[in-house]
């Protein structure tokens, strides 16, 4: 199987030959950062395009089809437009916080983006408490949202931000709980090891019986809420709060929220496929060696992306089908249903693991 | 060296078939007379292309035309095809103010404020007879006879209400107009602060105005 | 059948007692309240009262204020909740002050408006700028006028909102107010404490313009009032004028009008469904609704040439004969498209657990409340009030068809929603009974070139898409009406909004507003 670390170690040795060690590290860091930002931008655009086409498909429309073949470069236009749109600075707002907020959101989503294991040997941030790191950094985003609502001096923004705060912080609990359940099964918190284990022993969603499957579903619900996507999109619910916490943002500031929203969805799907569906691990059926070999020929990042887009498909499907929840119903769903369920799952998983009932 | 602006081209519909090409040609001549340097002209073109294909309408409807506008956004006419994908509800994020319907005396200051709240570049399309001239209500005591009395209108779209096809046509006309614009140099659409000039920054009256605006 | 009315004339001192007596007699639904300037005779009002029980008999009470310069009349706010907003409308247009009314503010016009535009001698254009230079200052005080011992007016001010209320402006430009409605909403956290509707952003003075137009010209404005009930509004006005002139339209016209009204009703209810879905965040269902609605528009377009503003009914008939494909298209629509569509709506939206949770028990109105507020149409029937005029005061061809009047009990958002969807089925049923035997006959009666309505007062009402749509017409025998007043279907709904939303959440306000189904240009006229 294609191992990306071959390439990185080769690059490392080449660079070390021509420059001192500190410079090598610096150059590598810059390269990685550039890589991440490029990927981030590309995937945001792909996501926006996919979402538009998908929702057009669901809604018996065509979706963008004029700019480029099948409207593929429509998003480029949008980005160009947003880049050149005026950014208003409003009086009577807290300008510093107002300007800071979108960066916090983007930073949080970029850092979590960097946690994704793209391929064997191609994880950027990888250390032994990877899952914790992911959860911790991911929650910086909510600070950005709260700041956006607070600093805008707009009642709609404020209500939207308060909703976002209540919602995201609540749902982080069940995400954490579900992650713990899976860590309990995996015995590691490092993303590379998670994937490696699954490549060797099979995907966790199969290994963990119904408990893992239930955890997967809980994760999808909570993850969707975490991304502020419908039916949990009340922080920006347009029919109530015009545009929620980003009502007062224009141009690229709004663009950051827009990109971050889609990327968070991607990250949510990426995390689901890493923890439950084996990340870059190919699909293998024990016993069918020929089939397994063919599967292993497919490079890891293809597997990873395929899984991500499968999960995305589920999320988009749900997004375009359901009406929006109400804030009290959202909190009821979390505190009265998801948290007890995920706690039970944790206990069940611990039992399964200690009794050796997992595969 | 100057790069000349050329006539805007829209996919699928030949240039000659559009009405009112003269206005555009005049605009082009004006811009060409100023001259643009070779370095920024291609960039300008790129930006114009981007902007013209991504005109997000602001949802704003006062009466009947709004329903037809919904029909334009819905399945059969699907304006998302042209890049008018998302109707934004916040004026900060919309690009086109489609004045759908009658503007009354009471509504006029609100529309004006809405326009002021939008960010540059912003465009206005007057949709339907009422927005163009007051339509069937010109005799009324409470109707503004044409939204162009309060806002600079880019495209007029007649009809009562206009058919969805003419909505799309109006949007395409606007696209063409956006294509002949300069971002760098000669003309910039940036609107001046409307109150700064008339009232004077920092005065008491000004602060009061701001207080009012926050309510919106 | 004549629709002429002979109002009981009472003196201002006796007005309140008379109204109270009539209410006790069973006339407990204030269907319409029309202000009027009778020139020499003075300014006054006509109360149109209806028995809300199944008979739907009407009676009219006329009262003229004694003072011409500063007219005052006693209020009827304590008898009917809806009188509050109707009297504000009369005050706004005629300057008649209702004594004891708790909230005597302008309703439609700006608070700094000079004059009372509907008075015959008022010249509003001269006193008011077409484009006001300043933003409107919306005052936060209510005025209550009373007479003191010497007979002088005394004004008592009370604040609209409590001092510590957190007031959010929903509208005038807001995606889910369905137009330019301005709801000043006091909230506590997410809970709505009070709503103060602020209207008039699309007040176009249709009633005033009509007074200077000939009768056929007035027809043009009706379609633009309630644009989702264009057929029905125009039907109401045509019917009123025809009955006043004693014209009998042919069977064929009656049936065509009935079918068109029902198609329009389906159109309106589909749009109701779509917009409700959109407001609740189910964008896909919104597009499904519009997909089916296009089919109706196609039928309209073939026969009339218009999609939304149709201009089809004329005085004495209809404008064009039916398109040859009409029968076939309509049959296809009611037998294929609509049942399939409805099934889909129920699947994607009605049964959805989120929607059920958001609508059941939300914003209930009791039967007493809807009668007192005059909320007719789906809103009234959801609360168990049998108020379908098609059944109780049949007009056109409704007397000949069998259909059920859909009513529910609890009057919450879910019921209001279900009433509409069920009514689509009933409308299909009505059309099904009529479509195969549209009688032959002229589509237009012979009319004189100049239409003149004989002197008198007339009132006709039809069942519009969202309630009773009445037309009050007063003629002095000229070629244009002396006074033309429309009973708005939406105004009572907005008036009841405060009652329905109290102590529910902001998100519920959207649901309730969506299920009430009001059209703003119809409210403001």
Walk me through this protein's architecture.
Chain A is built from 15 helices and no strands. The longest helix of chain A has 38 residues. Chain B has 216 residues and is α/β, with parallel strands linked by helices. A four-stranded parallel sheet of chain B has the order 1-2-3-4. Chain B is globular, with a radius of gyration of 18 Å. Chain C is of the alpha+beta class and 525 residues long. In chain C, 40% of the residues lie in helices and 18% in strands. In chain C, a hairpin with a 7-residue loop joins β16 and β17. Chain C is globular and about 70 Å long. Chains in contact: A-B, A-C, B-C.
Quickly list its features.
heterotrimer; A: 359 residues; mainly alpha; globular; B: alpha/beta; 4-stranded parallel sheet; 8 helices; 4 strands
Topology (elements, then pairings):
The complex is a heterotrimer of chains A (359), B (216) and C (525).
Chain A: H1 4-18, H2 21-58, H3 74-83, H4 95-114, H5 130-138, H6 140-151, H7 155-186, H8 191-201, H9 204-207, H10 209-226, H11 238-241, H12 251-275, H13 289-297, H14 300-319, H15 327-355
Chain B: H1 21-34, H2 40-52, E1 57-58, H3 64-73, E2 96-100, H4 108-117, E3 123-127, H5 128-133, E4 155-157, H6 164-179, H7 194-198, H8 204-215
Parallel strand pairs in B: 1-2, 2-3, 3-4
Chain C: E1 4-5, E2 8-10, H1 12-25, E3 29-37, E4 43-50, E5 58-64, E6 72-74, H2 83-94, E7 97-99, H3 124-127, E8 141-147, E9 153-159, E10 166-170, E11 182-188, E12 191-198, H4 206-210, H5 215-222, H6 230-245, H7 251-279, H8 283-304, E13 313-314, E14 317-318, H9 326-350, H10 353-359, H11 367-373, H12 377-382, H13 389-392, H14 413-435, E15 456-464, E16 467-475, E17 483-487, H15 491-501, H16 506-516, H17 520-524
Parallel strand pairs in C: 2-5, 6-7
Antiparallel strand pairs in C: 1-15, 3-4, 4-5, 8-9, 10-11, 11-12, 13-14, 15-16, 16-17
Helix pairs in contact in C: 5-6, 6-7, 7-8, 7-14, 7-16, 8-9, 9-14, 14-16, 15-16
């Amino acid at each position: 199987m294609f191992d990306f670390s071959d390439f990185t170690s080769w690059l490392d040795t080449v660079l070390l030959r021509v420059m001192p060690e500190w410079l090598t590290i610096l150059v590598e860091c810059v390269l990685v950062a550039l890589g991440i930002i490029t990927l981030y931008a590309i995937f945001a655009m792909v996501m926006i395009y996919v979402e538009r086409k998908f929702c057009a498909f669901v809604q018996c429309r065509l979706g963008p089809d004029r700019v480029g073949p099948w409207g593929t470069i429509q998003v480029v236009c949008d980005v160009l437009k947003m880049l050149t749109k005026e950014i208003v600075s409003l009086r009577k707002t807290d300008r510093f916080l107002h300007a800071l907020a979108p960066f916090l959101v983007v930073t949080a989503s970029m850092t979590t983006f960097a946690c994704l294991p793209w391929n064997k040997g191609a994880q950027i941030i990888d250390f032994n408490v990877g899952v914790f790191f992911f959860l911790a950094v991911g929650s910086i985003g909510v600070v950005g949202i709260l700041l956006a609502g607070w600093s805008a001096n707009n009642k709609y923004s404020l209500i939207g931000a308060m909703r976002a705060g209540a919602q995201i912080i609540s749902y982080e609990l069940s995400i954490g709980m579900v992650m713990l359940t899976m860590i309990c099964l995996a015995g590691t918190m490092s993303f590379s090891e998670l994937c490696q284990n699954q490549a060797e022993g099979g995907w966790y969603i199969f290994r963990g019986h119904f408990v893992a499957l239930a955890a997967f579903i809980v994760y999808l619900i909570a993850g969707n809420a975490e991304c502020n996507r419908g039916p949990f999109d009340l922080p920006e619910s347009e029919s109530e709060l015009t545009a929620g916490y980003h009502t007062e943002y224009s141009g690229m500031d709004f663009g950051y929220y827009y990109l971050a929203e889609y990327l968070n969805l991607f990250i949510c799907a990426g995390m689901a496929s890493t923890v439950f569906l084996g990340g870059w691990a190919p699909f293998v059926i024990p016993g069918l060696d020929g089939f397994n070999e063919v599967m292993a020929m497919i490079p890891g990042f293809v597997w990873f992306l395929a899984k991500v887009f499968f999960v995305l498909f589920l999320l988009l499907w749900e997004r375009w089908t359901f009406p929006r929840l109400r804030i009290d119903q959202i909190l009821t769903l979390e505190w009265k249903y998801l948290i007890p369920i995920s706690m039970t799952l944790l206990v069940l998983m611990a039992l399964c693991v200690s009794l050796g009932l997992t595969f | 060296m100057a790069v000349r602006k050329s006539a805007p081209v829209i996919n699928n519909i030949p240039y000659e078939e559009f009405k009112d090409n003269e206005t555009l040609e005049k605009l082009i001549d004006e811009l060409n007379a100023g001259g643009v340097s070779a370095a920024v002209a291609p960039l300008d073109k790129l930006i114009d292309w981007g902007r013209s294909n991504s005109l997000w309408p602001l949802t704003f409807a006062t009466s009947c035309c709004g329903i037809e506008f919904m029909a334009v956004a819905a399945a059969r006419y699907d304006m998302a095809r042209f890049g008018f994908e998302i109707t934004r509800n916040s004026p900060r994020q919309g690009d086109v103010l489609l004045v759908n319907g009658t503007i009354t005396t009471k509504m006029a200051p609100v529309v004006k404020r809405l326009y002021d709240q939008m960010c540059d570049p912003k465009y206005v399309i007057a949709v339907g007879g009422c927005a163009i001239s007051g339509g069937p209500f010109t005799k009324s005591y409470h109707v503004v006879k044409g939204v162009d009395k309060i806002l600079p209108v880019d495209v007029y779209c007649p009809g009562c209400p206009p058919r969805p096809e003419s909505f799309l046509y109006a949007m395409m006309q606007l696209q063409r107009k956006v294509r002949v614009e300069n971002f760098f140099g000669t003309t910039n659409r940036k609107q001046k602060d409307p109150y700064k000039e008339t009232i004077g920054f920092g005065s008491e009256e000004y602060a009061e105005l701001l207080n009012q605006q926050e309510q919106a | 059948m004549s629709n002429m009315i002979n109002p009981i004339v009472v003196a201002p001192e006796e007005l309140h007692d008379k109204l109270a007596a009539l209410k006790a007699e069973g006339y407990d639904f204030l269907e319409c309240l029309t202000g009027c300037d009778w020139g020499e005779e003075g300014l006054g009002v006509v109360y149109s009262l209806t028995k809300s029980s199944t008979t739907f008999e009407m009676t009219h009470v006329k009262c003229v204020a004694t003072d011409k310069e500063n007219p005052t009349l006693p209020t009827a706010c304590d008898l009917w909740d809806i009188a509050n907003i109707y009297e504000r409308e009369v005050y706004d247009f005629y300057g008649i002050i209702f004594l004891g009314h708790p909230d005597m503010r302008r309703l439609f016009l700006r608070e700094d408006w000079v004059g009372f535009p509907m008075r015959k001698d008022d010249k509003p254009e001269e006193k008011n700028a077409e484009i006001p230079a300043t933003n409107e200052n919306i005052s936060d005080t209510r005025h209550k006028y009373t007479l003191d011992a010497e007979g002088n007016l005394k004004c008592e001010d009370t604040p609209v909102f409590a001092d510590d209320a957190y007031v959010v402006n929903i509208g005038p430009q807001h995606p889910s107010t369905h137009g330019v409605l301005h709801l000043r909403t006091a909230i506590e956290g997410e809970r709505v404490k009070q709503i103060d509707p602020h209207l008039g952003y699309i007040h176009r003075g249709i009633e005033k313009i009509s007074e200077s137009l000939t009768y056929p010209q007035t027809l043009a404005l009706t379609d633009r009032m309630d644009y989702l009930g264009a057929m029905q509004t125009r039907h109401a006005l045509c019917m009123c004028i025809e009955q006043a002139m004693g014209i009998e339209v042919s069977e064929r016209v009656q049936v065509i009008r009935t079918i068109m009204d029902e198609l329009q009703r389906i159109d309106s209810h589909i749009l109701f469904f779509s917009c409700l879905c959109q407001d609740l965040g189910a964008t896909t269902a919104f597009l499904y609704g519009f997909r089916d609605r296009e089919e109706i528009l196609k039928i309209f377009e073939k026969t009339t040439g218009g999609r939304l503003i149709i201009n089809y009914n004329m005085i004495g008939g209809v404008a064009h004969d039916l398109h040859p494909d009409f029968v076939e298209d309509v049959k296809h629509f009611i037998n294929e498209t609509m049942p399939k569509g409805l099934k889909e709506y129920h699947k994607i939206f009605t049964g959805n657990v989120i929607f059920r949770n958001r609508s059941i028990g939300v914003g209930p109105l009791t039967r007493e409340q809807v009668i007192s507020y005059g909320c007719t149409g789906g809103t009234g029937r959801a609360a168990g009030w049998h108020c379908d005029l098609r059944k109780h005061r049949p007009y056109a061809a409704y007397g000949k068809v069998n259909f059920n009047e859909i009513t529910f009990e609890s009057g919450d958002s879910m019921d209001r929603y279900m009433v509409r969807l069920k009514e689509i089925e009933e409308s299909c049923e009505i059309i099904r009974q009529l479509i195969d035997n549209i009688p032959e006959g002229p589509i237009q009666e012979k009319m004189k070139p100049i239409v003149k309505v004989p002197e008198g007062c007339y009132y006709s009402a039809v069942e519009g898409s969202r309630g009773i749509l009445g037309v009050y017409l007063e003629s002095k025998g000229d070629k244009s009406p002396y006074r033309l007043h429309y009973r708005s279907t939406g105004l009572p709904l907005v008036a009841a909004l405060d009652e329905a939303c109290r102590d529910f959440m902001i998100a519920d306000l959207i649901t309730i507003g969506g299920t009430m189904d009001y059209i703003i240009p119809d409210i403001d006229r």
